[in-house]
């Protein structure tokens, strides 16, 4: 072993230590700050029904549902961070594809009213292998399709296709597309995790989560322009305990 090899190993060890510290810091933020703040928001929202008329009840119900969903996500995110740091294996089970995909489609429509986000066909009623972080997969892909779109009229088309053992979710846009030499690197494959190039941590998170779920993600060219991100997820074993309703 040469001096150069030793130096490289030491540099790699230090990078791993830095990553571990970053993950631990993120874990603390997720477990304490975000979760506690959302619990306070939910608590105050639960006191509002006597002060809300029928016209505002739907909005209040949405606030309560979203608050509960974020609290659930913080727990799953904690498991995700710990799985990255090697502390534990994420808890997976049968997860409702339609609920997660419809929720994130509705959210991106509300957040980006100037973009046209449409569903091509019906979402199959099927459970896939995953957990609550499945929402993060769809959220990041949809946000990426809108935020990085250089078209005057951004368009995003979502399609879910059920096969014998898997389900493919396609998120197509009319943006600038992804060059061939970036189609692998954009997910951080072969790169150093959180420092990977491309669209930031979002696509790295998508890739990492789909791998944890036993699936995969890839990007293809759209016609006539743009990109198509394809997530392929294994169907859940019918005998499995449902992880998320």
Automatic annotation (TrEMBL):
It comes from the Archaea. InterPro entries: BphY/WalK/GraS-like, HATPase_C_sf, HATPase_dom, His_kinase_dom, HisK_dim/P_dom, HisK_dim/P_sf, Sig_transdc_His_kin-like_C. It comes from Halolamina pelagica. GO terms for molecular function: ATP binding; phosphorelay response regulator activity; phosphorelay sensor kinase activity; protein kinase activator activity. GO terms for biological process: osmosensory signaling via phosphorelay pathway. Residues 6-33 form a coiled coil. It catalyses: ATP + protein L-histidine = ADP + protein N-phospho-L-histidine. Residues 29-237 form the Histidine kinase domain. This is histidine kinase. The keyword Cell membrane does not apply. Its EC number is 2.7.13.3. PANTHER family: SENSOR HISTIDINE KINASE GLRK, TWO-COMPONENT HISTIDINE KINASE. CDD domains: HisKA. Keywords: ATP-binding, Coiled coil, Kinase, Nucleotide-binding, Phosphoprotein, Transferase, Two-component regulatory system. Signal peptide: none annotated.
């Amino acid at each position: 072993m040469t001096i150069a090899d030793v130096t490289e190993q030491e540099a790699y060890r230090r990078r791993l230590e830095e990553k571990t510290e970053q993950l631990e810091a993120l874990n603390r933020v997720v477990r304490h700050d975000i979760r506690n703040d959302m619990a306070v928001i939910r608590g105050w929202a639960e006191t509002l029904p006597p002060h809300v008329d029928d016209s505002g009840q739907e909005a209040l119900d949405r606030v309560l549902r979203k608050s509960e969903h974020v609290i659930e996500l913080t727990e799953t995110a904690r498991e995700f961070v710990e799985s990255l740091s090697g502390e534990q294996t994420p808890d997976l089970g049968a997860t409702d594809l339609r609920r997660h995909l419809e929720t994130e489609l509705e959210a991106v429509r509300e957040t980006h009213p100037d973009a046209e986000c449409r569903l091509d066909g019906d979402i199959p009623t099927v459970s896939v292998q995953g957990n609550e972080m499945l929402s993060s997969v769809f959220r990041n892909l949809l946000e990426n399709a809108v935020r990085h779109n250089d078209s005057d009229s951004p368009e995003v088309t979502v399609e879910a296709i059920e096969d014998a053992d898997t389900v493919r979710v396609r998120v197509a846009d009319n943006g600038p597309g992804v060059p061939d030499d970036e189609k692998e690197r954009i997910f951080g494959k072969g790169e150093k995790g959180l420092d990977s190039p491309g669209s930031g941590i979002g696509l790295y998170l998508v890739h990492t989560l789909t791998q944890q779920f036993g699936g995969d993600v890839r990007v293809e060219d759209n016609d006539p322009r743009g990109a198509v991100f394809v997530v392929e997820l294994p169907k859940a074993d019918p005998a499995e305990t449902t992880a998320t309703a």
